[in-house]
Write a structure and sequence with these properties.
The chain is of the alpha+beta class. Helices cover 17% and strands 35% of the residues.
Length: 150
């Protein structure tokens, strides 16, 4: 994975409470970085409702997270977190992430996740909105649309 494959980036600084006794960023923290990046991605694309997240009654559940560790980050180190949506199905979509040390341009971790749109009453998957498809496909040139045409 290369940073040139991503259009969206946030920068995070490793905080003291995120490092372990060895002085490196704890492995579980990277999932939080992915989440921070996903939320900012949605904000930047205008997919967060005007009255705040969840104010429109839509629920999104993370159903899969995958991470590959390549290097260690340390306290106070700046990290660039790159994100993109790689595919969209009827009710789910997939993110890809890349975490890179800002100064050295060294990959720390890469990963992916799958998120499902869920009906708040039935708790079952529900189709994504037309607006969602339009905004993502307008931003991501290479997003794979796997939506059923039925």
């Amino acid at each position: 994975m290369e940073t040139t494959n991503f259009k969206h980036k946030i920068t995070i600084k490793v905080r003291f409470n995120e490092v372990d006794m060895l002085g490196v960023c704890n492995n579980a923290v990277y999932i939080n970085y992915f989440e921070d990046a996903r939320l900012q991605y949605f904000k930047d694309l205008g997919l967060i409702p005007g009255h705040g997240i969840f104010s429109d009654g839509k629920l999104f559940y993370v159903v899969r997270n995958e991470i590959n560790y390549k290097d260690h980050a340390r306290f106070d180190e700046e990290l660039n977190v790159y994100s993109k949506i790689s595919f969209i199905k009827n009710s789910s979509f997939g993110f890809e992430h890349l975490i890179v040390k800002a100064k050295e341009n060294v990959i720390v971790a890469d990963g992916s996740g799958i998120i499902v749109c869920v009906d708040p009453i039935t708790k079952k998957s529900t189709p994504l909105s037309k607006e969602f498809y339009e905004k993502i496909s307008g931003f991501e040139d290479e997003v794979e649309i796997l939506k059923d045409e039925n």
